[in-house]
Write a structure and sequence with these properties.
about 425 residues; mainly alpha; Receptor-associated Protein; 2 domains; three-stranded antiparallel beta sheet; 17 helices; 3 strands; flat; cell membrane; T2SS_GspF/T4SS_PilC_CS; transport; membrane; cell inner membrane
């Protein structure tokens, strides 16, 4: 029943109605003046909602779209993770769903997030289930999130499922942050190094070149090479920027539009020393964490595998998991399909086999996820410690090489004197 309802929630066609933010003032049942902010399609709908809540509206004004846009911030994955934890805490404390959404929405610091939460509250008040209300925002609530909430609503254990979702989101966001740190730190330093080098070649080296012309002496080969490079950058800087910008744009569009290109990138990334191992172990951790959460919620294994594939974060793993799902649907054991994929380490396969035999697959997958998350943590910390001296050496060679090239003629002139 829960599976059918989840499928219906995913496939239901939602009529898109433009909603606006309204500021309102009114009088509650105690005769006290109250004011607030709500999201809805029209002023009349807001007034109807307020009356249902026991508030007699005095004034309802649509907030300026320009003003709203100026205050909006992007909704990040961490915002969804925090929302999950807040809702889990509220529901566990016995707060009704609509009231919990009202409290969380009005107390959120991000106006965009607050507007979305209040929009979800509006849909729930209109008679939609919580899962279907979340499904109206597919950019932020994927099938996995919606399916788990739907299972919780149908089983009467929404607060328990929200707790599992909150834990899952917090764990996955933590592992993503670690992987992002491992990838962005060296890349950012290298970019800064190239920018500094470009500034030195464009602004500083020409000054020294003019000084060297007054010497009337032959310059060292290394100095000539640096000056030639500086002259090329001054003459063709627009071409260099165009090539760099075009390459970056082409890379972005290729990754966004071409699945084959993304598959190629994911395969290459997995083969990079150290970084590839971090990405591989994080994918194993994400697979087991997602499967554990879905299975603990009572979602059938075959249906859970589809959500696990979409949450894998790597096309190589995604395609392998879809193949595993097809094998499992024919009656094959999960541990055997994992073994046949050739992607999963023996320890993960054996733990899953034990889980299948003992009927505790969710617990075993959670233990595997904990292990590999700890592995990723340790590898990222070790990589950071290893990269710091290497980056310092790289910067020393690049910047020090330019400085040496500029001072070599001066040293040579001093020796001649």
């Amino acid at each position: 029943m829960a599976q059918a309802a989840a499928s219906k929630a995913r496939t239901a066609k939602v009529e898109v109605v433009k909603e606006h933010t309204f500021k309102w003032e009114g009088v509650d049942r105690k005769g006290q003046r109250v004011k607030g902010q709500s999201v809805g399609p029209s002023e009349s709908m807001i007034k109807t909602q307020l009356r249902k809540q026991g508030v007699n509206p005095i004034s309802v004004r649509k907030q300026s779209e320009l003003f709203s846009a100026s205050r909006k911030k992007a909704i990040k994955a961490v915002d969804i993770a925090i929302f999950s934890r807040q809702m889990a805490t509220m529901m566990a404390a016995g707060v009704p769903l609509v009231q919990a959404l009202e409290i969380v929405g009005r107390g959120h610091e991000n106006p965009s997030m607050a507007e979305m939460i209040l929009g979800i509250k509006t849909h729930v008040e209109s008679g939609n289930s919580f899962a279907l209300s979340l499904a109206k925002y597919p950019l932020y609530f994927d099938d996995l999130f919606v399916n788990l909430v739907d299972a919780g609503e149908k089983s009467g254990a929404l607060e328990t499922l929200l707790e599992k979702i909150a834990t899952y989101k917090e764990k996955t966001e933590a592992i993503k942050k670690k992987v992002k740190k491992a990838l962005t730190y060296p890349a950012a330093v290298i970019v800064v190094a190239f920018i500094v080098t470009g500034i030195l070649l464009y602004f500083v080296v020409p000054t020294f070149a003019e000084l060297f012309q007054s010497f009337g002496a032959d310059l060292p080969a290394f100095t000539k090479m640096v000056i030639s490079l500086s002259e090329f950058i001054q003459a063709k800087w627009w071409l260099i920027l165009g090539i760099v910008g075009g390459t970056g744009y082409g890379f972005y569009e290729g990754k966004r539009r071409s699945r084959n290109f993304r598959r190629f990138l994911d395969r290459v990334m997995l083969k990079i020393p150290v970084v590839g191992e971090i990405l591989y172990k994080s994918a194993i951790a994400r697979f087991n964490r997602t499967l554990s959460t879905m299975f603990a919620a009572g979602v059938p294994l075959v249906e859970a595998m589809e959500s696990v594939a979409k949450a894998s974060g790597n096309i190589v793993f995604e395609e392998a998991i879809y193949q595993m799902r097809d094998r499992v649907s024919t009656g094959q054991q999960l541990q055997l399909s994992m073994q046949q994929s050739g992607l999963f380490p023996n320890m993960a396969v054996q733990m899953v086999a034990i889980g299948e035999e003992s009927g505790a697959l969710d617990e075993m997958c959670a233990k595997v996820a904990d292990f590999y998350e700890a592995e990723v943590d340790a590898m990222v910390d070790a990589l950071s410690s290893l990269l710091e001296p290497m980056i310092m050496a790289f910067l020393g060679v690049v910047v020090g090489g330019l400085v040496t090239a500029m001072y070599l003629p001066i040293f040579k002139l001093g020796q001649a004197i």
